[in-house]
């Protein structure tokens, strides 16, 4: 009963921020044929907490990947509230041909109390579907954010969701054995209070910039 009451309280009191405004595709100018980046997933890809996609995850990641002077063409395919199953069924078909697909999921699956096995199965099917459509594209699985760091969540609800998000991320990490798939766990240190938007649940521009920097380093290294 305590967990249910806390969940209802959080849902009622947490401000509902919109997704990022503006185009969901863009180009960072540079040399040569553009590197094609697609980012796919939940509200963080929808850009909740940022004014537009330029300062949300996809735009920040594209700029980080362009630091060596190459051009980067980017596409953000996200939906607030999407879990892995919805992403596979409704969002993956919208992804254009890409050199790299970054998948950012897990928070909604955590909230829905999906099992680790079910989440892993959904992610694997998503990767397979993408490759059937796009060919042998590289895939980077962004780690499930550690929900122990979300200021909007009270205890003990935070502890329960933290354990579940950790389990889901460990399940996702096993897909790193699939050729062409990498998994990058999120460093909890990225989620200090300054990283969050006003709802204390989604990243703000500073949080997106930090996250994008770590993702880019894993791609470049």
UniProtKB/TrEMBL annotation:
InterPro entries: SGNH_hydro, SGNH_hydro_sf
Top-rank lineage group of the source organism: Bacteria
A single GO molecular function term of this UniProt record: hydrolase activity
Record-annotated SGNH hydrolase-type esterase domain positions: 39-210
Keywords: Hydrolase
TM region(s), chain numbering: none
Protein name in UniProt: SGNH hydrolase
Organism for this UniProt entry: Amycolatopsis vastitatis
Biological classification of the source: Bacteria, Bacillati, Actinomycetota, Actinomycetes, Pseudonocardiales
